[in-house]
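Q: what sequence does this backbone want?
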């Protein structure tokens, strides 16, 4: 149950259960998630997942089959968070959602601020699809906060 609890925490922070296999913050969790998929697929000689284990993971939104290039349903995740960013932009006049730790005071912005930070990092590494960049540019997304060239 310890690993399941860690997966719940990962899902709360990232909005999904698709822990990358190279997840440096917790390699043990990354391997455990991969192991659960293998158990479900029956590709291991270990015991298969029980119905209860399967239900718990599915209730958390666990994806059994992933896009092998991205280790998650990236398009769906992006569009969900883009919609939240658009609402935030409409309400606040900018896309600089803060990374807030006080979830009671700012429950909606908590995950959004982390996502915004991760989007910037992915673009910087060249790992963000052009169509995603174009959508964010249309919103006035500010890519480099230090230069402040854009208003959003």
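A:
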């Amino acid at each position: 149950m310890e690993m399941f609890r860690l997966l719940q925490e990962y899902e709360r922070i990232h909005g999904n259960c698709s822990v990358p296999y190279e997840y440096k913050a917790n390699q043990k969790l990354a391997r455990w998630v991969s192991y659960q998929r293998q158990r479900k697929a029956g590709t291991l000689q270990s015991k298969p997942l029980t119905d209860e284990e399967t239900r718990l993971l599915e209730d958390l939104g666990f994806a059994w089959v992933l896009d092998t290039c991205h280790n998650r349903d990236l398009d769906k995740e992006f569009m969900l968070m883009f919609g939240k960013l658009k609402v935030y932009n409409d309400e606040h006049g900018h896309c600089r959602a803060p990374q807030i730790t006080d979830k009671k005071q700012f429950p909606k912005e908590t995950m959004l601020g982390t996502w915004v930070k991760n989007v910037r990092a992915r673009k910087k590494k060249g790992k963000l699809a052009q169509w995603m960049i174009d959508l964010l540019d249309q919103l006035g997304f500010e890519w480099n906060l230090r230069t402040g060239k854009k208003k959003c």
